[in-house]
Amino acid sequence: MTTIAELPPGFADKVLSAQSTFRSVMDAMARPGSVQRIVPMAGTPGPMMRGVAAIALTLFDHDTPLWLDARMAESSDVVKWLKFHTGAPVIQDSSIASFALISDGALLPALERFALGTSEYPDRSTTLILQVDSLDAGQGFELRGPGIDGVATLRASIKPADLFERLRVNETLFPRGIDVVLVADDAVVAIPRTTRVVSKGS
Amino acid sequence: MKLSTIIDNLDSASSVDRVTQQNNQQAQRKAAMAVLAHAEAGEIAARLRAFALPAHQDLRTPENGLVMLRGRVGGDGAPFNLGEATVSRAAVRLASGEVGFGYTLGRDGEKARLIALCDALVQSRDFSASVERDVIAPLREQLTIRRKQAAAETAATKVDFYTMVRGEG
């Protein structure tokens, strides 16, 4: 049981910190595969990384239903912290979630279980925020797509290992699809629905 | 309660004590809020400046928002939305763990933070007496004086309609 007395604090400077974090996430989305840093830091509850905590404080509010993976959902620290600082409703039904927080890639459900948007409103899809082990070491990925001049290279150790294979549903669904934000500590990489993984090195 | 039953039920008696204590604290916080919400931010800050504050941090930095004010037709009829009012809120945590909340009308975030700080101090075992004595009691006195003065000024403009009618007739 967490009482409010033990809750980690939010941003020290709400407006500037949120603006700075928003900028990092926007740059990451605009340049898929590039590693952006999140500078402002807030308290981190339970299994949540500090980058994810900053993104939560920036993007979540009472209009963005959240879906949490089992590890996050069973941590009362995380649920209470999100409720206190963001007011976002935590829901069980992943198909209507605006954001999904995944702390353990092994717990990522089939992507079809999330909101994919509609042809009229492709923006009404779930954005996955996935905590990964590392975004500067590990397997090599080559990315292509809008926002990338030629080919971008990403080295990352990501769970689940077949994430990019699973994301190929985006090719057939377009303009619908799933956007992914990968976070390792304070590093952020975005894989929007238009990005294709062209080859994999070791 | 007879003494014998108290001794027989020591456990339940002490839990009753805890509940009363909690209710007392609730009442104290409520009373403090009633004063602080009507005080000026500068007045609260001036009182707190003379106060040896314990270490504290902002759990929720001051933020502004809107609340919908609801009215009732004729005071007790169907509810309707009267309009929105700006409010500020903040939450402060003392190093010893007490968390205070401050809500106030208007956009003065600093005032909300000071109220939250006072609320946390009121709950603290070490500071509740001194904050009541040095901050809240003087503010309460000022508030009472202001209210009495306003009431007196209003009372001076009272018109006796009976006299008016008689004057015409």
List the helices and strands and how they pair.
The complex is a heterodimer of chains A (202) and B (169).
Chain A: H1 14-30, E1 36-37, H2 50-59, E2 66-68, H3 70-73, H4 76-85, E3 99-102, E4 127-131, E5 134-144, E6 152-157, H5 163-166, H6 169-173, E7 179-184, E8 187-191, E9 196-200
Parallel strand pairs in A: 2-3, 3-4, 4-7
Antiparallel strand pairs in A: 1-8, 5-6, 5-9, 7-8
Chain B: H1 3-8, H2 10-36, H3 41-49, E1 56-72, E2 79-94, E3 99-105, H4 109-123, H5 128-155, H6 161-168
Antiparallel strand pairs in B: 1-2, 2-3
Helix pairs in contact in B: 2-4, 3-4, 3-5, 4-5
Structure description:
Chain B: This is Phosphonate C-P lyase system protein PhnG. Chain A is α/β, with parallel strands linked by helices. Chain A has one domain: Rossmann fold (3-Layer(aba) Sandwich), CATH 3.40.50. Chain A has 6 helices and 9 strands. In chain A, helix 1 packs across helix 2. Chain A starts with 13 loop residues before the first helix and ends with a strand. The model of chain A has no long low-confidence stretch (mean pLDDT 92). Chain B has a 3-stranded antiparallel β-sheet with strand order 1-2-3. In chain B, helix 3 runs antiparallel to helix 5. Chain B is α+β, with helices and mostly antiparallel strands. The interface between A and B is small, with 12 and 11 residues.
Question: If you average the pLDDT of chain A, what whole number results?
Answer: 92
Structural class of the helix and strand makeup of chain B? alpha+beta
Widest sheet of chain A: strand order?
1-8-7-4-3-2
N-to-C terminal Cα separation of chain A, in Å? 44 Å
- Rounded to an integer in angstroms, the radius of gyration calculated over CA atoms of chain B is 22 Å
The H-and-E topology of chain A, N to C, reads as HEHEHHEEEEHHEEE
Give a brief rundown of this model.
The complex is a heterodimer of chains A (202) and B (169). Chain A is built from six helices and nine strands; from the N terminus they run αβαβααββββααβββ.
